[in-house]
Amino acid sequence: MRQKQSILILGVVVVAVIALVLLKNSANQTSGESSRQVELAESEGQSAKKLPMLVDLGKGTCKACKKMKPILEELTLQYQGRAIVKFIDLRYEPQEARKYGIRLIPTQIFYDAEGNEVYRHEGFMGKRAIKSKFAEMGVD
């Protein structure tokens, strides 16, 4: 009898956990593009002053991602106050791959000051190409 109660309690807990996961996923999917734009601005503390942004998604273990790391660090300093350069390491934030629709790493996504995606590149992207894209977007 006691074993049946334990199994029943365990079953209820499993069902509750599955229900919570499904609710969270459906809430994330229905939030849509506009909430992603707000999230991008707020996550960078840019609610007062909106800036163009480059989001690079990769893993610190891939060769191309390792080659991009010093480039992104340099550009972060160079564009400070004019654009945001953000790296998301998918080893630690794997849910971001689905959120951003990542098929290949690294992927660079450029957003205008309003949070709209204006360009996406898959694979290694050199400093000159990134600077050129920022220039096209009006970031000097």
Plain-language structure description:
The chain is an alpha+beta fold. The chain starts with a helix and ends with a helix. Helix 3 links the parallel strand 1 (about 55-60) and strand 2. The chain has a four-stranded mixed beta sheet, with helices on one face. The chain folds into two domains: about 1-30; about 35-135, Glutaredoxin. The chain has helices at about 1-30, 30-45, 65-80, 95-100, 125-135, and strands at about 55-60, 85-90, 105-110, 115-120.
Write the layout of secondary structure elements.
Blueprint: H1 2-30, H2 32-43, E1 53-58, H3 63-78, E2 84-89, H4 95-100, E3 107-111, E4 117-122, H5 127-136
Parallel strand pairs: 1-2
Antiparallel strand pairs: 1-3, 3-4
Please name the defining characteristics of this protein.
alpha+beta; 4-stranded mixed sheet; Glutaredoxin; 140 residues
Gist of the model:
The protein is an alpha+beta fold and 140 residues long.
CATH-assigned homologous superfamily of the largest domain: Glutaredoxin
N-to-C SSE series? HHEHEHEEH
Number of E-type strands: 4
Q: Strand-residue fraction?
A: 15-25%
Instruction: Give me the side-by-side strand order of the main sheet.
Output: 2-1-3-4
Shape: elongated
Overall structural class, as computed from helix and strand content, comes to alpha+beta
How many domains? The number is: 2
What is the level-2 CATH architecture name of the largest domain?
3-Layer(aba) Sandwich
Any idea of the CATH class of the largest domain? Alpha Beta
Helix content: 40-55%
